[in-house]
Alpha/beta hydrolase
Amino acid sequence: MIEESIGHTQEEVDKSMRGHNETLTLKVTCATTAQACANLRVLDGLTMDQRIQYLRDHGMSVDFVDQIPEGAQNITVNGILNDEARAVHVEAGHVSQTNDQATNVTYYVQYNASKGGVSDLMQAGYDKFVSPINGDYSATILAMVDAVQRQGDDAPVNLYAHSWGSIVTRDALNILANEGYTNPNLTTAVFGAAVRPGALVSPMTIIAGYNKVFPPIDPVTGQKPLSSLVYLTSPYDPVAMFVGGTLFPSIYLDSNSELHLPSAAQGEAWGGLQGVAPVFQGPVNPHSCYGLNCAGTDYNWTIDKAEQWKKAMERHQ
């Protein structure tokens, strides 16, 4: 039994190491409306290649490319237990989260190589805790850094990341900030984040600028412009709560704070616990249903719903 356990652990470590050193790049275009692409329900029992073909047959072009090219405006990175087909599909609901009728939207997926649940968790843990210390960054992180740098220092660049992808994005942003990269037109949006908001605020204020992350009120409109950092986390998302730490207080989660990120919500303990089982039961759950994904379900969570949640919390204080 012990030998079997050791053998299984070594196998998972080997897979994790392979994932650490592998990455792929996919170019995706949603030819129909963004909501129609997000609404696609890929049939069960298909291989990864068959599911990618299903997406192609239903309005999404999916192409494997050598690298993210110059001029790429939308760059995304996936979470754990996402093969290439799942990674491509989930990001359709993130990139166009504020415009469900957008058409012909193109984005690039810097694919975080998934090798299975245990090995993915090992990779994510390594990316989160070890890489910032020893500088051994994954192929995906380094590919993202390279892609962003090649866009230039004033081009519009939008980064989107889900779950584990938020760790990858945090590491990439820190590398960019430490190397002196600045770009006032860079935005970052994370969904179901596995990092605390402050871990993204720090590099983003260096790269995009403090007033881009925390924009002052416009004297003409009396409104705050959109922040360059979206931290969209459902209060019922157990991953964001227990891994990303939204269960614990933060000035960026506190709706009464001047530094509150408008889309960020404090985790709700009992709701998060109730959300654990659905995460393991299927793709419609509080961790996967951000932006345009799972529209019409109770688990769908958007920037508008985050604002409603904020107002509701303020009324109860």
About this structure: The chain has one domain: 2-315. Residues 2-315 form one domain.
